[in-house]
Amino acid sequence: MITIKRLSECTMAEATEAWNKGFEGYYADMTATVERFVWRLGSEGISPSLSVVAFADGEPAGLVLTGIRTVAGKKVAWNGGTGVASAYRRRGVGKAMMEAVLQIYREEGVAIATLEAISHNENAIALYRQMGYEVVDRLLFLQHTKGFASNPFAGEAGRYQVRHGIPHDVRPLSFCVHMAPWQTQWAGVRDGEAVLVSDERGEVVGYALYKRVFDDNGRLAAIHLHQCVAAPHRTDAAAIMRAALSHVFAPFEAVCKRSTFNFPASNETAVALLREAGFTPFLEQVYMTRSMEA
Question: Which residues constitute the domain of residue 66?
Fold first, then answer.
């Protein structure tokens, strides 16, 4: 018998067991300790009271993690992970959990539900389509793992003024992309940084959000790009983005992993600049949304 509970009604040990069983055999090793699982909830804005855990004959058999935040005046929900234990896949457990989560969204007044799925995870995407989600973009993970002899984004970058800040600094911009994938929104780039690009008149015309990771010895290990945006209708959009990327991925002689994270394929200008610089794909997801107002 399958029963579904709110994660807040479960122990963290039960929820962690549901996570580990649900993502067993996944495309990457998702195994977590209780401590790591609790860290994920906090760092990604997951709400235990809005998430669900499925039990089969009293044993954890799956879960859906979810969170809600207000984006541009509307409540937006994110499915931060749907996993079903291998013994219970294709037996309606995933559908039952998704139905429970969508009902929670309705009760909470959510306007838009969002999620991401690995592009070749056809079974998951089919389930989400069945639940009313639609693919609205492809999300690219591009990487470059070596150092550069020089700045590949130099071009006309020197025409602009660039200042460093924090993700919150882009929130007031008229062209801030608020409805980005959950973890790449300004509120979701935890411990992240921002660069803001201004033209000769001092007007902010572009920005980038990114995160740097350092190893235990304090050395730069990775730089992850989350957003790179130019103001709309700018004929110099590529140059603006070059200016931003020149600061995001510096110092270029450093050998570290430089990558994009859930980066929209629809941002064709930025993607072209990254590919020209030698970034190559290593993973792709689809970005799916569902209107809860219909």
Answer: 2-110
